[in-house]
Amino acid sequence: MSVTRRTPGLGGRGAGVGAVSRSSPVRALSRALPVAPALVLLILFLAGPIAYCAYIAFTDLQLTGQAESSFTGFDNFRTAFRDEAFLNAVWLTLVFTVLSSLVGQNTLGLALASLMQRASKPVRTVVGGIVITAWVLPEVVAGFLLYAFFRREGTLNAVLDWLHLPSQNWLFTLPILAVSFANVWRGTAFSMLVYSAALNEIPKEITEAAEVDGAGGWRRMWHITLPMIRRSIGTNLMLNTLQTLSVFGLIWVMTRGGPGNRSQTLPLFMYEQAFQKSMIGYGTAVALLLLVVGSLFSLVYMRLLRTEV
Fold first, then answer.
1. Residue from 97, 47, 54, 105 nearest 77 by CA
2. pLDDT digits (tens, 9 = 90+) for 97-128
3. Contacts within 8 Å (CB) and 24+ apart, 142-145
4. Terminus-to-terminus CA distance in the chain, angstroms?
5. What is the CA angle 72-77-81, rounded to 5?
6. 166-213 pLDDT, tens per residue?
7. What crossing angle do the helices spanning 280-306 and 84-97 adopt, rounded to 10°?
């Protein structure tokens, strides 16, 4: 008579593995359900419009005077890179982004955050309130304020005349510098808040030890502070750059891209082509190129953020 020997627990273990494998799709579905509404909204209001704009960029769609549009391939993109006005807008966009975001907002925000740490509470309250007020103002309101500041009969020239210094029409002679300064004035608060939070996370023992060892303020900033907040710097640069690339209302209120096209960045050029000249296909192609530029900046910053400190 043969006896069949069963390994204790083997059947139970196999049943458990099967139960886990059978329940894994259910578990994955239960985890996906809470984010499903957000995913649907992203597809409808973000991915969907981007895909439709990508299609329009390859057509000759116009607002008026056209019964139906046709597929034109890369003609809009070839036209853009042969258009001197487009190349001028690309150059001015880079100048505006570098001056107002990478240099202006980033550097001034870090300087204000460092000074606010050493300032007294009343000074921090006043300076922080002034800077944040400029940030929370609507873009159109900020544009009108800076237009009144830089115009020929504006506040800046009144101060220069009172000091017996030469004045000029800043919005005519240096329009891209004027709108860059306006963007710095309006957007520095965000950088200040980011860097204030980052500086507060640096252990005081490290900076105190460096100070005891004889390291001056600049050496502590360069060798301790900046390396320890490098991730915050990358995040701030990425967000500021993307915001600056899409600035429209501030420049439109101050100069409308003029005089001529000397302050016409890519968002204003896109608006002119799509809605003033009714070339929706061409304007959308420019918008798609702007999206590509922003994506390239994002990839560079994300690469920097992945680098270990």
1. 54
2. 999 998 999 999 999 988 888 878 888 888 88
3. 142/182, 142/185, 142/186, 142/250, 143/182, 143/249, 143/250, 143/251, 143/252, 143/253, 143/254, 144/253
4. 72
5. 145
6. 888 899 999 999 999 999 999 899 999 999 888 888 887 877 777 777
7. 30
- Angstrom distance (rounded) from CA 291 to CA 36: 26
3-state secondary structure of 158: helix
Half-sphere exposure of 37 (CA within 13 A, CB side): 1
pLDDT recorded at residue 67 = 67
* SS3 call for 59: strand
pTM of this structure: 0.82
Tokens 């006005």 sit at which residue?
Answer: 85
User: Which residue(s) pair with 59 in the sheet?
Assistant: 71
At residue 135, does pLDDT exceed 90? no
Token digits for 240? 């500021």
* Whole-Å CA distances, 244 to 176, 220, 247, 248, 303: 13, 30, 5, 9, 20
Model confidence at 59: pLDDT above 80: yes
Residue 71 per-residue DSSP state:
B
